[in-house]
């Protein structure tokens, strides 16, 4: 008996003797990550213990490049960080410069900007409404999403000449007036997209597998939303009722209060985030119709201000922010009175939103990680700038 008590057997030598944790790198070339993002996960079996988003793989120094370009040239840099929201990105820059100049923009330009910003919001959301089910194994919705995107891309391309990077905003207004008959074609496209949006209710929200993968998964609390500065559809899906278009109106949103509906959910899970995105598409289509109605009432007139050959902003600083499709975008502009910005700091929505994964992913399963990551609706260029 004494011999048996002194016998000791060790099974497994090496790393397993110290810990069962495993470090898993998701990316930077993983197909589920919307671009070149890397997630460093520490796993205990199938469960995530720690998560660290590693950003910077697409960093291109846009903020530094702003300092070497004049106020016309920086627009081409600004509309590229979130390539799904190019019109909204360039809009924020020109609003900041116009605020520095104390410049009033013609009324027709204000309403046209509002219209195109809402069409751009629909284009952004449709991409995620199609790609998110794809990441969970449902291939069909993406084909419907791209069909609706093409309807709207056609009118956006006709008015601006661009399909992704529109380059249609200018300091003081817009590049050109609307083409003859364009408003009717835009109204037809909006009606066509609206008539077919029920497809997503039937195909996606009505799918029990989709609901099983998303309901109660990746719950983001309002406290985390505030702690990390999460904004946009992600914040509103967690019950944080904040939308700049209503709470600090810019462009023509102050006159659209009756049409604008801020969509919120209380659950804060993957399903709630998808539902918010879907409902926002319906409301943006209604806002687009309201803008088309108002444009039809306005008399002919200019859509831009005449600018000097060399545009210089007065010395000082200003901050402009917009409700971009993915959340709050901020533009902090500092001028020394030259033709180029002294500093233009960009606050992008995706950068803040993605940081919340640090606290959201621990405790979840690896199988749910893709569902959570996809529901964060980010663009990696918007993270890295």
TrEMBL record:
Keywords: Cell membrane, Membrane, NAD, Quinone, Translocase, Transport. Its EC number is 7.1.1.-. SUPFAM superfamilies: HydB/Nqo4-like (SSF56762). The keyword Lyase does not apply. GO terms for cellular component: plasma membrane. It is found in: Cell membrane. GO terms for molecular function: NAD binding; NADH dehydrogenase (quinone) (non-electrogenic) activity; quinone binding. Belongs to the complex I 49 kDa subunit family. This is NADH-quinone oxidoreductase subunit D. It comes from Streptomyces reniochalinae.
